[in-house]
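Suppose you are handed a protein chain with no further information: no name, no annotation, nothing but its sequence. What can you learn? This example shows the usual starting point.
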Amino acid sequence: MKNNTVIITGANSGIGKEAAIIFAQKGYQVIMACRNLKKGEKALQEVITLTKNPEVSVMELDLSSFRSIHSFCIDFKSKHQTLDILINNAGYFKYDAKEYPLTQDNLELTFMVNTVGPFMLSYLLLDLLKQADDPRILNACSTNIRHFFDPNRKIDFENLQGQKNNKAYNGYKMYGDSKMALLMLTFKMAEEFKPDGIKVNAVQIPSVSMSEETKNKFKGIWKLLATLQNPFALPKEKMAYAYYGICTSDEFKNINGKLIDSKQKIVKPSQYKSDPLSVIKQLFDQTVYPKYADNRENIENAWNFARETTKTVGITPLP
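A reasonable first move is to predict its three-dimensional structure. Written in structure tokens, the prediction is:
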């Protein structure tokens, strides 16, 4: 096997770090794209020590910053001519924020990191992905999108900072909205990138066991919930193996524009009816996702939001 290259964002901890270990063990050239270089370098040494693979490196990438994303891509392209796999794993969730967290570019932080950042990163790396034999992009989504089974749930892309109605910030809802938007972008990116042979899929992440370091970031009831769910949560190593399988196996060679679960099974849009019993049934059906994500108007709204947001940054216009 040639020394294929994979970028994993948020690879200094959690699923991202475990995925870096697996890809390194398989002989891949792994780029751990991390916001915090100090933590990234510490994780890098652990990965190299464990895998004995010297072709692992860490690069700084802050997905909350257009300039950082742009700089990362320039740096990466100066060292590489091809990119085989891009895993948009990094995510942001601020459970206890009282006000809308904003980036230096004056965008809502959750949407920037979870939705706009992965979109921009993918686009800026398209030319290198096109050079690969079997290029694949994997976007990390969440079971949190299941809240969209509620027919009243929707994303208002023009009110992400509560500017219309002074709506109070809800970090949990914002996280779910951002991951739903990323799923819809996945479907559209799959269509747009298909002529270049690039496969784009999303993986649905359930509750995953947390390290003590991660649990200690929570406070009050949130820390208690994190502690209680850990014994029943999916080990992050298993989720990382799902990343690897989706990005490398022949089984997914021709799979494009799909949501895939932790067992590497394709999740389908719900076909349940709207009567009360059917609504309840679909809540417990892990093989389906909300129809909201399959709605063409919703998909186009997410796409236009991402395009217009990245077009106005004044760094690199995107199509």
